[in-house]
Amino acid sequence: MTALRTYQTAGILLGLAGGLVISFDVPVIRAAGADPWLLMVARGLVPLPIYILFWRYMGRFHDTPRNPFADITWVQVGIIYGLSQICFTASVFNTSTANLVFILAFNPLLAALLSWWMIGERPKPSTWIAIAATIAGVAIIVGGGLQAGTWFGDFFALVTAVTLALALTLSRKSGADMSLAPGLGGAILTAFALPMAVLHYTPPQSWAWLAVNGALLVPIAAVCLAMAPRFIPAPQAAIFYLLETVLAPVWVWWFFGETMTRETMIGGAIVLAAITGHALWKLRRPGPRIEEIEAVA
C-alpha cells in the first residue's frame, strides 16, 4: 500500500508542479513582449541545452536511455509534442482565445477516451466527474467570448488537444520515462518557426523575461507534465494543464492590474475545486502500479 501511494503521490505532485509553473507562462510572455515567431524559437531552442545537460549529467533523476532515439515510442511522443506546439501556434493566430481555451479544456476527456481504447485503462467515476466539472468551469470562464466562423483556428485547437492527449496516453502505455521527449518537440517547433523568425525579426521588449520563459518555465513544466503519466493515468495528468486556464488570469491581475470578471472567478473556483478534490480523492484511493498498467497494455 505504501508503494502504491508513493506512485500516486509522485504523479499528482509532478502534475501539480507542472501546472503551477506553466500558469506563469502568460504574464511572463507579456512581460517579454516578443514577436510570436521569435517567442516560438525561444520556447523551442533555449530549453534544448537544458534538456541535453539534464539527460547527460543528471541520470539519477531520470530513466531516459543513453540513446533515446532507439526507443520508437520516445521518438513518437517527441514528434507528437512538436506537432501539438505547431498546431497550438496555428490556432492562436486563427481563432479567439476563448475558443482556444474552451477546446483545449477537452484534453482530459480525449485522454480518458484514448486511454480506455488504447490501454484498456477505464477511468474511474471520480475522474469523469472531475473532467465534466472542469469543462463546465472553463465554459463559464470563456462563455461570453466564444465566437463562430473561426473553424480553421478551431480545427487546429482541436488537433492540439488530440495530439497532447495522445502524447500523454502513449507515455502512460509505455510506462517509460518520457520527461525529455518535449525536447524533441521543441526542436521540431524551432525548425518550423526559425525561418519566419529570421524573416520577420523584431527584438523583444525584454530579453531577460524571454530567457526566463524559455530557460525555466518551459522545460520545468514540460518535464513535470510529461513525466506525470508514468505514475498516474493520462486523463488525470491532463487535468493539471487546466491550472494555466484558471491561474493565468490571477497572475495577470496581480502583475498587470487587469480586472478579473465574475465569470472568471466563478469558473476558476469550479475548476480549482474539481482539480483539488480529484487529487485528494485519488490520494486516498491510490491507483495500480506501473507494472500492472504494463500488464494490461
Query: What is the domain tally?
Result: 1
* Portion of residues within helices: over 70%
Name the structural class. mainly alpha
If you average the pLDDT, what whole number results?
87
Number of helices: 15
Order of helices and strands: HHHHHHHHHHHHHHH
Choose one word for the global shape.
globular
Explain how this protein is built:
The protein has 297 residues and is mainly alpha-helical. The chain has 15 helices and no strands. The chain has one domain (2-286).
Question: Can you describe this structure in just a few lines?
Answer:
The chain has 297 residues and is an all-alpha fold. The chain contains 15 helices and no strands.
